Structure formats: structure tokens, C-alpha cells
Amino acid sequence: MIIDNIKNLGRYNISSRKEIARFLAAADIAGPFAPELEIKGRELFLRASQGPTRDPKDGKFETHREYMDLQYVVQGREVMETAPEDALAPLTEYDPKTDCQFFKAEKDITRNLIRAGEFAVFFPGEAHRPLCSPDEGHCEVKKLVFKIRLGTG
Length: 153
Fold this sequence. Notes:
By secondary structure, this protein is mainly beta.
């Protein structure tokens, strides 16, 4: 997992980071986005969302196998929780169509506050529960989730 300001994206050897930086430089990130947008086919695509954060108990931990997530908070703030593999209990089987498996965890949970202008990278196998409310309560969040297929340049 990586957490940093989006201005520092170039510091990391993340697949497709140059395409992401070019996209962000050209895009009107304050404006609306389609819910899903292909940037480099299915090798790199974007899922945009806007809405309220939620109580952690209303969310699930998720992992991926084929894609890594770069979750960029454009507006607002959210907590992205993480949990180690030995704290996870499967809720679903892995679904290759969605590249996702859901879990629950009740111990060893780490809360990571991600503010506007910051991003988090979750590599395959790293369990994360996004869109959790910060300590001060629910808030509105706009975020861009870049899905990066492993092995892309």
C-alpha cells in the first residue's frame, strides 16, 4: 500500500503512472465523469464516483488479483481501512469477472485518512475497505479509482 499526495505520483514505480499523470493533467477533475472510462483499454481504466462516506460496518473489505487500485480523492475526505490477511474471513468466493473477493475483518484494522489531493494504492491481495467515514462523521467524497492491470507499462 502507498499513501501520498497526487503531486508525488512520479516518485513511485507504478505501472501506467505516466498515463495517469497525463490524464489528470488534461482532465477537468472538478467536472463530471462517466462512471467508467477506458484510458488504455482494459489495461488501465477509471471508475469515478461521488457520494457520502459510510459507517465501516456497512462496508466490506475487498481484494483483487488481476488489478491494482489507485484511489485518488478529488474532493472531501474518507477513511480507507486495511486489514492483514490473517484477520480476514471470506464473505464471497473470488469472482474473476469483477476481479474481486469480499471479506469481513474484526481485528487488526488500520484506519487511513485520505484527504482531497491524496491517493492510496492497493496492490493485488491487499485488503481494503474504502469510503469509510472519518471520525468527524459522514461527508461527501468525489474520487477517481484507476484500475491498473498487472504487467502494463
